[in-house]
Every structure is written in C-alpha cells, then in structure tokens.
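#structure-requests
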Amino acid sequence: MADTPISSASHRRTNSALWYGLLIMLAGIATQFLYFLRLPPPIPHVLPWINLLLPAIAMIYVVTGLARAFNQSAVYVGKIWGSILTVIALLVVAGNVFLFRQTRAVPNSAGAPQVGQHLPEFTLLDSSGNQTSLSHLFAVSANGSPPKAVLLIFYRGYW
C-alpha cells in the first residue's frame, strides 16, 4: 500500500529552491523602490548593481528548482508554477538589464551649470506669463538692497 502512486505523490517534497528564488526575486523588485528614499551617499551608487544582482541570483535558484521539478518529479513538486515563475524571472532579469543599459546610455549634460557657478543672463516667462530676466531678479528686493543669490526652480511643464 505504501508504493501506490497516490501515497507517493502526497509524500513529495516542497521544492525549496523555487520558493527561495521567488523570495529573492520579490526582494529584487522591492529594491527598485529604494530610489525614492534619501539614502546615504555610498548606497545610491551601488543600488543599480544590487538591482541586477538579486534577480540574477533568484534566476539561479528558480532554474535549479525547475530542473529538480522536471528531473526528479517523483521527489519534488513545482512543474507548472515553477515554469511560470521561470518565465516571470526571465522577464524581470531582462527588464533590469535593459533598464540598466538604458540609464547608462544617458549622456551627461556638458552645458549644465555647476553648483556655485555664475549663470549667463537669460529671460524666461514666470508662472504668471510675464518675462523675467536674471538681472531683474537681482534688482528686485523688498528692502531696497540687492539680493546675494537667486533660487531658480524649473518645472517640467503642464500636461
């Protein structure tokens, strides 16, 4: 009775590699949200590499678990959901690699002013539609003395 297919199927082991792969993949996706936090200086520079590394490690676990499920199907479960998880993991890894390459391809602005650098004279429209120049901003003051600095805020526009 112990060798019947029903009893042997109910005693198959959980495929832990698939579960570990899923957890690491979710952690890799969660690290994408760390860009919205103000983290101390070394972490933002390492974060893109972490975003690449975690899904790659998860992919190793998922492929290992999928190989177990298909090669040792009498022992391990997870053929169907392991296959689905592998496709999702491949898409996440491919998406991370694509975004990593795209963000590296963005050129640095050669003409952008640096902190503390004096700006050339310009004239732009303010939020009311009136023309405002840099020299006008330095000349306008509530108490009559010229300001020492001007803070410029550029909005992306209206959409």
